[in-house]
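can u do me a favor
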């Protein structure tokens, strides 16, 4: 009997050890929401999936809506089945049932990544605007909330009248760190050069930014606002962990896609998605991260080894 008990105990320990190994290696489940956008979503949603899956940390699924002005009644993603939802969507309003399911997920503490033009969406949906903190276009104006920018390093909430959302010519530009201690950016350079991309400016909304991570100067000479603009931040919204990244304008093809091929963009996306899903970031700083002198590219979307 004693031998049997010892054997059962040994089996239990081994099984528990295997369970711990499996738990550690279990990928983070991500859902990419796309299907409509004023940007090239046909490229962006597939590239987002590549970046996430090729990192080895995520298992990313894609869900697409009906085409513009199509029948949205069957669009009912199971948000609750995922650790993080990545928004790559700007288009027709979802069904009321889907709106509520998304709010239930976020308000229940779900993880969200707001990627690039997803912050153009749903200008008339009050709760969505709180989830993204800042948005642009789609009729946004002073009624949507203040402009948010930095002046002499200090955040400014500007309630002056005017449309929300603009950007100058695409270009390479420096990124400036505003929070060295946050897990998403800890260990990353204070200043680095992002690849050719749009720089969103004059964004406005509830401005409930929690952690401002990176900003960029929207140079008037390239059509920008002339202000230091928020580009990467987290959002203060209840129990949810929300990561908002305005970078990553999709190119005409996956092969010609510098903003998304930028190692800096991919690193922030991966670290932001991990944080949104788990509250932690275990990824090391990659060796190919851009410097303050030049951008760095991953043409196959795989992290450097």
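np, heres the sequence
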């Amino acid at each position: 009997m004693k031998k049997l008990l010892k054997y059962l105990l040994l089996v239990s320990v081994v099984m528990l050890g295997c369970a711990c190994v499996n738990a550690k290696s279990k990928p983070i489940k991500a859902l990419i929401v796309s299907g409509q956008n004023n940007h090239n979503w046909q490229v962006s949603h597939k590239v987002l999936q590549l970046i996430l899956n090729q990192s080895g940390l995520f298992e990313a699924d894609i869900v697409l809506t009906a085409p513009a002005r199509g029948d949205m009644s069957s669009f009912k993603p199971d948000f609750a089945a995922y650790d993080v939802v990545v928004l790559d969507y700007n288009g027709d309003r979802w069904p009321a049932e889907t709106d509520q399911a998304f709010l239930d997920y976020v308000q229940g503490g779900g993880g969200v990544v707001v990627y690039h033009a997803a912050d153009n969406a749903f200008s008339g949906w009050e709760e969505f605007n709180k989830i993204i903190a800042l948005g642009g276009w789609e009729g946004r104006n002073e009624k949507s909330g203040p402009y948010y920018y930095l002046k002499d390093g200090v955040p400014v909430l500007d309630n002056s009248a005017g449309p929300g959302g603009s950007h100058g010519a695409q270009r390479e530009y420096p990124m400036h760190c505003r929070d060295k201690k946050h897990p998403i950016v800890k260990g990353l350079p204070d200043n680095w050069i992002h690849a050719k991309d749009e720089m969103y400016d004059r964004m406005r909304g509830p401005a409930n930014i929690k952690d401002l991570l990176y900003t960029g100067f929207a140079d008037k000479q390239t059509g920008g606002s002339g202000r230091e603009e928020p580009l990467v931040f987290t959002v203060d919204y209840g129990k949810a962990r929300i990561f908002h990244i305005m970078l990553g304008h999709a190119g005409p093809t996956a092969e010609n896609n510098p903003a998304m091929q930028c190692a800096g963009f991919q690193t922030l996306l991966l670290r932001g998605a991990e944080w949104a899903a788990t509250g932690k970031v275990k990824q090391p700083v990659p060796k190919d991260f851009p410097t303050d002198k030049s951008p760095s590219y991953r043409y196959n979307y795989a992290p450097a080894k």
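The mean pLDDT is 93. hope that helps!!
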